[in-house]
Structure formats: structure tokens, C-alpha cells
Automatic annotation (TrEMBL):
Short name of any one Pfam family annotated for the protein: zf-CGNR
Gene3D superfamilies: Jann2411-like domain (1.10.3300.10)
Domain Zinc finger CGNR residue range list: 134-176
Protein name per UniProt: Conserved protein containing a Zn-ribbon-like motif, possibly RNA-binding
Length: 177
């Protein structure tokens, strides 16, 4: 399964690397190499960085902290200090470098720099006005969180091409029966 980036924020996209959180979980970051590929797919780095099992564990801790913090923001609950600590530790490190190279923008750094950039994006979201726009996909069994930037704030699915299309097709089939 490939990575998708439909949440509107890198932190939420990292949290979305776990699918079906309520049952039949699918972990897209099963190995350190998956995490390295994710940093490139996310546009954080140009080449996959070296990644260890320890790096993967750190990334998964960040992923789960971001998910819990975003869920709390969505429901109006208080942020857990331990989750804020995980996020702030990652965000406090130097981020990936964004440079102007011969062929345009180049991104460089190691895995921790990529995770720092991701954590900073999540912190900006969770501490700003867009936190009120965090929603959870209504498609079953999707549990992806996303920013509802629609005009009327009525978006129901994380991605219209995937979850939205499946939900509408299922509703159409149900009406036809």
C-alpha cells in the first residue's frame, strides 16, 4: 500500500500511516525502510535517509502523540502533557533544510530533521485556529484525520477519490436495491 497525503497537514498525514484504527489496523510504517520512503514521499527529503529500528519507534511515538493531540483538538479535550512533550521534543530539533539548488528547491537532512519538520507542522496546526477544522473521515473503516478546508465546512471524507467515492457508490447501490 502506498502513502497518501490528503489530510492537509504533514502531522496528520503521519498519523494517517495507521489505517483502520478501530479494527484490522494497517501500519504503513512496518519497517525502518518504510519510514525512510515516507519522508521522500512527503516531500521532506530528496533521498531516503538512513533509518534504524530506534528511529522507527521514535517516529511511531510521534505519530501516536499527534493522533491523540489532534483527536483531543477535534473533540475539545485538553492535550495530554506526555503527548505534548513527545511533539515538542521532535519539533525542537533542527528541521530539514530547504535550499535553492541548480534545479530548484532541494531538501536535505537526516531522519530526525524530517520528523522535526513534521512535528513543527503539527504544532502549528494544533496551536492555531485551524485546529478547530480537524475532522475524522466518516467512511467506514477509515479513521484518517484531516483539515476541513471546504467552503461550508461540511466535508465528510478524507479524500473524495477514495473514501468519498466508495461511500457514494455504496449509497447509490443501496438506493438501487
Amino acid at each position: 500500500m502506498e502513502f497518501t497525503f490528503v489530510s492537509g497537514n504533514l502531522g496528520l498525514d503521519l498519523a494517517g500511516t495507521i489505517g483502520r484504527r478501530r479494527g484490522g489496523r494497517v501500519d504503513l510504517l512496518a519497517a525502518p525502510e518504510d519510514l525512510a520512503r515516507w519522508t521522500v514521499a512527503a516531500g521532506l527529503l530528496e533521498t531516503p535517509p538512513a533509518a534504524t529500528d530506534g528511529d522507527l519507534a521514535e517516529a511511531k511515538a510521534l505519530r501516536e502523540a499527534v493522533y491523540r493531540l489532534a483527536s483531543a483538538a477535534r473533540t475539545g479535550e485538553r492535550f495530554e502533557p506526555a503527548d505534548r512533550g513527545v511533539l515538542n521534543l521532535a519539533a525542537g530539533r533542527p528541521p530539514a533544510a530547504v535550499l535553492l539548488g541548480e534545479r530548484g528547491v532541494e531538501r536535505a537532512g537526516d531522519l530526525r530533521a524530517a520528523l522535526s519538520s513534521t512535528a513543527r507542522a503539527a504544532a502549528e496546526l494544533l496551536g492555531g485556529p485551524q485546529a478547530a477544522l480537524i475532522r475524522e473521515c466518516e467512511a467506514d473503516p477509515c479513521t484518517r484525520l484531516y483539515i476541513d478546508a471546504s467552503h461550508r465546512r461540511t466535508r465528510r471524507w478524507c479524500d473524495m477519490r477514495g473514501c468519498g467515492n466508495r461511500a457514494k457508490a455504496a449509497a447509490f447501490r443501496a438506493r438501487r436495491r
